[in-house]
Amino acid sequence: MTSTTDHELGLLIGVLPAELQSAVHALPPAQLLEVVMDLGRTPEARLEGRAERLAGTPVSRADIDAVLRGLSPVGEDNRTGIEGTLHRISVIRNRRGDVVGLTLRVGRAVVGAIELLRDLVETGQNVLLLGRPGVGKTTKLREIARVLADDLGRRVVVVDTSNEIGGDGDVPHSGIGAARRMQVPRPDRQHAVMIEAVENHMPEVIIVDEIGTAAEAAAARTIAERGVQLIGTAHGNTLENLILNPTLSDLVGGVHTVTLGDEEARRRRSAKTVTERRGAPTFDVVIEMVGRDEIVVHHDAGAAVDRLLAGEAVRGERRQPGRALASAVPAAAPEAPAAPATRARVGHPATWEGPVRIYLHAISRDLLVRALRDVAADARIVNNPEHADMIFALRARADDQKIRRLAEDGRPVHTVKRNSGSELRRALQAAFPTVPGIDDELVREAIVELEQAIERAVRENITVALRAQPPPLRKVQHRFAARHHLIEVYSEGNEPFRHLVVRPAEGDDFDEDEAVAP
To answer: How many Cβ atoms from other residues are within 10 Å of residue 3's Cβ?
Structure first.
């Protein structure tokens, strides 16, 4: 243990009655989880896998009062702490409101506590942690805040209820690094503080512990749809527990009952009344914390929920220190139609076979799904950036290291200033040129012809004339050609024989009224 940890543990032990302090000092400090003091019962210390009695005499009211005098005032959530530490002290009251029990839980900042899931939180995806009390969810949230703020330089705001993540007092504990902390005055105000954090402080990441009410679930969805990465925990041990919780199931898309028609029921070979996912999940990735050093990852929360509702087994990807991840069982079928793409597809989307695979970075999945439907683009959203053909990113996040690397690999990156349906539709129209009234196959042929002309002009250093095209198709060709900096493109001739000419970059003769910026 570090000297800082020893000092903070000493502060916790120091508030105990004198006869208990020596007993606690004799215990292995790294294994100590909490000290329990109940009126009229002997006090005990709880360690990993066992409990130790600390004294032979029962706890008196004077003992409890003495401990309370060394703590900060107890809040409405019946919790308090010790300023400058991560320890959490919870009280039990009788019917008159008097304190009759204390749970003094040891809080520690553990550097390296997120190595099993660091790759997941660095992607910008929304991540939800599930697990039983005491398994280390809050410890991991604290380390996630530090890593994202200090190592990756992101603007992180921690929404801290009961000061459990950032410690007691006005100054946040060093365990959250440079992340900012917003304290929640009352537990029932957590959802309001979550929204306030987004509206007032322009975060890139929001971290919140113990999402437990419908209002907090709704606030989480609002945050995710605004393009802010959300990292949180929720009550429940497994993904299946979460689906069965009517208050929190919306975090993974929600559940509703659908009545199928006779033909559809026969096609599915199912009953006419089935349970289905209602919408897109708020959280892209769900992590079940089996233990402090073992997790199960569901990389595609929506697909995992669909499989559970269909009665199929969902085992997830099991991770443990030193264990090869390749042996884990994926939670969902591969997103790509064949083997995952290791290289970006070249050329324009209009020339590609099959649906275009899009990875979202700080973009609302729901908004893009609706925009794809509006522009009738042949595309699908994938959760693994290595499987994507193109990237859609919030402009403020387009400089993230992962996005820069994907762009260097040849994947087109399309940015939008903010998460809105109109902006996403414009970006999709630029990425997927469609021409009203003209068959998509003709658009495809025009793009292929232009690609071949550009390749020949650059390779042979010659001017290449294309076939005559109507004005709408020439605009599409201009839009695509504007992405190539080694060539110049202009139109010549009179209708209906007007056509594009491609030549190596030398002058600036192209027709400005037809050129369309990318």
So the answer is: 7
